[in-house]
Amino acid sequence: MHGLIQEAKDASNRGQMRILFGINKTICNTIRKSSSAVRKKDGQLITKQNEVLERWKQHFEEMLNREQPTNPVIIHEEECYPVLTGIKTGPIIKKKIKDSNKANEKWKSSWQG
């Protein structure tokens, strides 16, 4: 246990968050359990696996097999996307792409340790 704590301190000092959180998970042994209880339409709690599955089936059948709305909303594309001004839209140069990829790789490697 002491070795793991020291390893966690070292990982924290080096900025290796992935290793730090992995050690933390090992030490704390926290496993979140998802709730398998579901409520019926009348609010009654059900926990038996076959009843829960049946309720989910019923729920999705109702949600996915409903009638089309009588007055659907009309969305105009120009309202969804504001007009962007001042952005250069010239051709992309291969060198810029390579430089960007190199910078991205350097950034990734600095976080992965």
Fold and architecture overview:
Among the domains are: 1-32, no CATH class; 34-65, no CATH class. Strands 1-2 form a two-stranded antiparallel sheet. It is flat. β1 (38-39) and β2 form a beta hairpin. The mean pLDDT is 80. It has helices at 2-14, 17-28, 49-64, 77-80, 94-112, and strands at residues 38-39, 45-46. With 113 residues, it is mainly alpha-helical. It is built from five helices and two strands.
Q: Which terms summarize this structure?
A:
mainly alpha, 2 strands, 113 residues, two-stranded antiparallel ribbon, flat, 5 helices, 57% helix
Task: Give the structure's gist in a few sentences.
The protein is mainly alpha-helical. The chain contains five helices and two strands; from the N terminus they run H-H-E-E-H-H-H.
Q: How does the SSE layout of this entry go?
A:
Layout: H1 2-14, H2 17-28, E1 38-39, E2 45-46, H3 49-64, H4 77-80, H5 94-112
Antiparallel strand pairs: 1-2
Q: Within the largest sheet, what's the order of strands?
A: 1-2
Which shape, going by the Cα principal axes?
A: flat
Q: Could you tell me the mean pLDDT?
A: 80
Order of helices and strands: HHEEHHH
What is the total tally of β strands? Answer: 2
List low-pLDDT spans: none
Number of helices: 5
Approximately how much beta-strand content do the residues carry? under 5%
**Rg measurement, Å:** 26 Å
Helix/strand-derived category reads: mainly alpha
Characterize the main sheet: 2 strands, antiparallel
The percent range for helix content is: 55-70%
| Spatial separation of the terminal alpha carbons | 23 Å
